[in-house]
């Protein structure tokens, strides 16, 4: 029983370590996209209601749709269905400047390659696209209340990241160190005998 | 002799580490065990009207709000919700930033919030404003776009979520 518990703890620890190292192994740095809860950029198109296509899905989606041009290579599409459930943020990245290896890595990370952007109302060239879920306030024309573009400037100077509001990692690490020390104490006693 | 000494040291340190981990866990699950009234009083450093309490009826969340700063890192209060005092007061034009730990006694249930839920903010003068959630999303901790200034009157409330707190759950609410 003790071995089982220890095995589970070690497995959790190793899984967290391996997932971290796996993330570090990716060489491609994906540029940051603003969230659809606070989008920024130039509003390219905005439809308060209608049927829209979502990349990677053959279904038709009914609701509001706003597309933001962040820069020449990045576009964000915020789709909000009429019932509010299942909002989809699609991040678009022009593949210009990306190597085939970069594209392969991003495809492995869930991005979808779109050979012709003009079919999706974008500029010419191929794009990578990735969908992210969000929830929004549904209803015709309500969008997510974000059709205005945020200023993009961040409060309180150069904030690099959001606040860390959890201590799970610290708690687990301290617990594991404690267990290791206790195991070492037991092992040393046995060895002494 | 040496091994016996080392064994005792490991035993003492091991117990201390495990107990401290237990304390951190207890801290997460014990409701309001640190809600000292003196903290609330000392937090009121400005004569201007400040948010003092946040209530989310649909999640049975009712917590004090404490002003917080981001000078050399984020200040996160352990006994309530932190209000980034460099952002606008909730209800004023702009983006008011509120955040808190994802502990069960704080904002642990925030990811259950849905659009159209209401968030009530009470102020130091006893007045109250109601905000309606318009959108929620799980974002990367690097996504500071949610802190951007806006032309509307909004509250951005967030907490940690995901595996080992690797993500942030963000809820945006507009003044009703």
Strand order of the biggest β-sheet of chain B: 1-2-3-4-7-8-6-5
Low-pLDDT parts of chain B are 33-47
Largest sheet of chain A: 7 strands, antiparallel
Quaternary structure type: heterodimer
Strand content of chain A: 15-25%
- Low-confidence parts of chain A: 140-147
Q: CATH topology of chain B, what is it called?
A: Sortase, Chain: A
How far is the first residue's CA from the last residue's CA of chain B? Answer: 72 Å
Question: Shape of chain A, please?
Answer: elongated
Structure overview:
The complex is a heterodimer of chains A (193) and B (176). Chain A contains 3 helices and 7 strands; from the N terminus they run αβββββαββα. Chain A has 193 residues and is an alpha+beta fold. Chain A has a domain at 42-134. In chain A, strands 1, 2, 3, 4, 5, 6 and 7 form a 7-stranded antiparallel beta sheet that branches. Chain A starts with a helix and ends with a helix. Chain B is α+β, with helices and mostly antiparallel strands and 176 residues long. Chain B is built from 2 helices and 8 strands; from the N terminus they run ααββββββββ. In chain B, strands 1-2-3-4-7-8-6-5 form an 8-stranded mixed barrel. Chain B is elongated. At the A-B interface, β7 and α3 of A face α1, β4, β6, β7 and β8 of B.
């Amino acid at each position: 029983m003790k071995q089982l518990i220890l095995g589970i703890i070690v497995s959790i620890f190793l899984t967290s370590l391996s997932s971290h190292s796996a993330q570090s192994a990716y060489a491609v740095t994906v540029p940051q996209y603003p969230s659809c809860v606070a989008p920024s950029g130039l509003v390219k198109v905005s439809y308060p209601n209608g049927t829209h296509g979502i990349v990677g899905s053959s279904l038709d989606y009914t609701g509001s749709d706003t597309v933001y041009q962040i820069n020449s290579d990045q576009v964000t599409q915020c789709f909000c269905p009429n019932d509010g459930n299942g909002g989809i943020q699609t991040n678009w990245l022009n593949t210009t400047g990306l190597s085939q290896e970069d594209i392969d890595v991003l495809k492995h990370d869930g991005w979808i390659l779109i050979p012709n952007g003009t079919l999706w109302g974008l500029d010419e060239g191929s794009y990578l696209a990735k969908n992210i879920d969000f929830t929004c306030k549904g209803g015709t024309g309500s969008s997510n209340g974000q059709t205005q573009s945020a200023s993009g400037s961040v409060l309180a100077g150069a904030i690099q990241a959001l606040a860390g509001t959890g201590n799970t990692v610290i708690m687990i690490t301290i617990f594991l160190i404690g267990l290791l020390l206790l195991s070492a104490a037991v092992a040393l006693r046995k060895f002494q005998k | 002799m040496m091994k016996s000494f080392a064994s005792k040291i490991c035993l003492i340190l091991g117990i201390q580490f495990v107990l401290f981990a237990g304390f951190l866990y207890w801290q997460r699950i014990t409701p309001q065990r640190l809600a000292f009234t003196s903290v609330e009083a000392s937090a009121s450093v400005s004569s201007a009207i400040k948010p003092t309490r946040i209530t989310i009826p649909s999640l049975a969340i009712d917590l004090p709000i404490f002003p917080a700063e981001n000078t050399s890192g984020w200040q996160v209060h352990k006994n309530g919700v932190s209000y980034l005092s460099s952002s606008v007061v909730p209800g004023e034009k702009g983006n008011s930033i509120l955040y808190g730990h994802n502990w069960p006694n704080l904002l642990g249930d925030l990811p259950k919030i849905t659009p159209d839920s209401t968030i009530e903010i009470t102020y130091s003068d006893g007045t109250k404003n109601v905000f309606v959630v318009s959108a929620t999303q799980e974002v990367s901790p690097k996504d500071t776009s949610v802190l951007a200034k806006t032309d509307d009157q909004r509250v951005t409330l967030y907490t940690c979520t995901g595996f080992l707190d690797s993500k942030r759950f963000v809820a945006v609410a507009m003044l009703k």
